[in-house]
Amino acid sequence: MTRSELIAILADRFPQLAARDSDYAVKTILDSMLSALASGQRVEIRGFGSFSLSRRAPRVGRNPKSGEQVLVPEKWVPHFKAGKELRERVDQAAQSS
């Protein structure tokens, strides 16, 4: 599902909201999550899952074109862990298919 599909579903499910209001709501939620992660906080949505940051240590990589060694610096990457309810619902849907 893309962001625009999510906005369209919200607009259909809640007809009292204009499409631009759905767009604003989705944008606000995603921006808040991004700001929290960027500041090092953890984001938890009960029943869905949690987003946190994982550190990738610096390492020595190789340039595939030349074969030369390259130092890859450390970086922080977002990590998602599915919640129990999400795992169970996905499992049920997969078993019924």
From TrEMBL:
It holds the Pfam family Bac_DNA_binding. Keywords: DNA recombination, DNA-binding, Transcription, Transcription regulation, Translation regulation. The keyword Transcription regulation applies. The keyword DNA-binding applies. SUPFAM superfamilies: IHF-like DNA-binding proteins. InterPro entries: Hist_DNA-bd, IHF-like_DNA-bd_dom_sf, IHF_beta. Gene3D superfamilies: IHF-like DNA-binding proteins. It comes from the Bacteria. GO terms for biological process: DNA recombination; regulation of DNA-templated transcription; regulation of translation. GO terms for cellular component: chromosome; cytosol. GO terms for molecular function: DNA binding; structural constituent of chromatin. Belongs to the bacterial histone-like protein family. Heterodimer of an alpha and a beta chain. This protein is one of the two subunits of integration host factor, a specific DNA-binding protein that functions in genetic recombination as well as in transcriptional and translational control. This is Integration host factor subunit beta. It comes from Corticimicrobacter populi. The lineage of its organism: Bacteria, Pseudomonadati, Pseudomonadota, Betaproteobacteria, Burkholderiales. The gene is ihfB.
